[in-house]
User: What shape does this take?
Amino acid sequence: MKRTIYLDYNATAPIRESVVDAVSTAMRAVGNPSSVHAAGRAARGIVEEARAMVAALVNSRPRDVVFTASGTEATNMVIRGTGAKSLLISAIEHECGAAAARESGLPVTTLPVSSTGALDLEALKSALEKAEKPALVSVMIANNEMGAIQDISGIAAIAKGYGAFVHTDAVQAAGKLTLDFKALGVDYLTLSAHKIGGPQGIGAVVLAPTAPLKALVVGGGQELSRRSGTENVAGIAGFGAAAMDAMVGIGDAERLSVMRDRIEEAVSAHANEAVVVGRDGERLPNTSCIIMPGVKGETQVMHFDLNGICVSSGSACSSGKVKVSQVLTGLGYEPEMAEASIRVSLGYKTEEADVDAFIEAWKSIYNRTRQR
Ligand code: PLP
Assistant: This one.
């Protein structure tokens, strides 16, 4: 049987062996982490050990890590829970941040980005001047669709000058870039385990010791009353194990960027009209967003799938819903171009042979569509 070539790490990274071990060990243990007996204390031990590992991934204090059921929930919690009077978000935020902002009932300013995805800092300053205070600025560190990296510490320094809170969605940056919560200068940072080889359905908010955070979910007062509900002990254990491996995995960046560049060079050499989105900007080492003009992203994804290759069009989190990528239109692409994009994202198991197969498939799909 032909091996599936998985090039969709930004959607979900393959689970790591250490994670499977940690999750199954935790699942075999009995006990509610809130119980005071020995079994409860053992479960608490698993949760707290993992919390320390997730904190280490971003260089924060363990007590400042709040576990949630997803990156989406973590970002919703921040957008809704700071007490800010207005929101400023980038034009290329993940839908979980954009939708939470829209639904918040607060005034929202959408900040423009350059063609390579960098936030317009002048627009940020003028929006901060006009915004009702305190404002919350929410800008992702790294974009999920085309990998643009923001200067978050610079953005935070500007925002702090206006007394604003700052949140960064670090879901795609974790495990790909070295993260230091304190050096970033933000008040809130959000994470998701399944993007770093952990289990799906577990995320976290990391917050500054003095940052306000209203609970979205109330009840038993778990997570220092910041997120009620019996902790997902197995998921948390897996998140901790993934965080440890992901820290080591950051050393893989150079290898990934070489493979990513090889894809982009081959595609551009084969078809002049192919566009690599944000190529000249600062980007994640593993992510490439490629436009094949005139061929819908979903059609390309189907062709790749027939060739045993998994990639995605637009944001995989919203696939099934066919809609134009807000990210690409936010970068200034016309809808016809935005619709013709796919995302290729590499990771720790990606090999040179996978890259070769992708390049061959891309060329053959392109040639076939040009023969019609
Ligand atoms: N933020 C970014 C940048 C993402 O890429 C994703 C998932 O694609 C999320 C948030 C949502 O994370 P989760 O899938 O854990 O809800």
Observations:
- Residues 22 and 238 are 6 Å apart (CA to CA).
